[in-house]
Amino acid sequence: EKNITLDSATRIELSCRLDSKYSHLKSLRVTWKRGNETIRHINKTENSWSIQLMILDNSKLGSYSCVLQGEEEISAVFHLQVPKIEGKEKPIISYEGDTVVMTCKSFDYAPIAWTWYVTNGSEQIAINDSLLADKYVINRISANVTHLKILKVTKEDDGVYWCEAAFELGKSIGKLKLKVLSLMVPLKPFLAIVAEVVIIVTMVFLYEMYSKKKEKRAEYEKEFDQVEQL
């Protein structure tokens, strides 16, 4: 299998060559397919089969296969696709009131345009930073890098965001997840420690009070015994 990345209209040649370890195979029938659809017009040389394609739009993208049938069946698959977008696999963690910057990249290929979306339930809503300038700032850092800045994040900003890159042959998306935490979250371990210290100090104080009372009671009983003896 081979992945072939295309961002604009082009002519491409796909070629299959039979490896020497399969040279013993005879009477081979070769079929080119796009998905399950058979494609004709095969150019053949010795142990090699190729097909030329004109990719004008995304309807011509997809998986193409070269299938050799004989004593065995051998195939090679070519995946024609638009450039992939790199988002971020791990969630971005921020606290309420902070500013968050999300980044999407398209390596080696420059998109025609970038669009950012936020997920609201089951639908994606395009982010318009000109209408919500006090909340979002979108910057195209370079031809293949875009930033989404979210100002003063709140719990409502928690969720999934998408960056979409438009190429001549189609669109590609990257996924990012934002996790917004309350300011109380980092304080919880500290508060737990403080609570433990307070409990220990209280126990020590109560123990000391109990010990002093016990000592006073013992002294009182001792004095009472002495008086009784007298």
Automatic annotation (TrEMBL):
Domain Ig-like: 1-77, 83-182
UniProt-listed Gene3D superfamilies: Immunoglobulins
Stated name of the protein: Embigin
Alphabetical UniProt keywords: Immunoglobulin domain, Membrane, Transmembrane, Transmembrane helix
Listed GO MF terms: cell-cell adhesion mediator activity
The organism's place on the tree of life at top rank: Eukaryota
Keyword Repeat among UniProt keywords: no
GO cellular component: a single term: axon
Pfam families, sorted: Ig_3, V-set_CD47
PROSITE patterns: IG_LIKE
Example of a GO biological process term: homophilic cell adhesion via plasma membrane adhesion molecules
Membrane-spanning intervals of the chain: 189-207
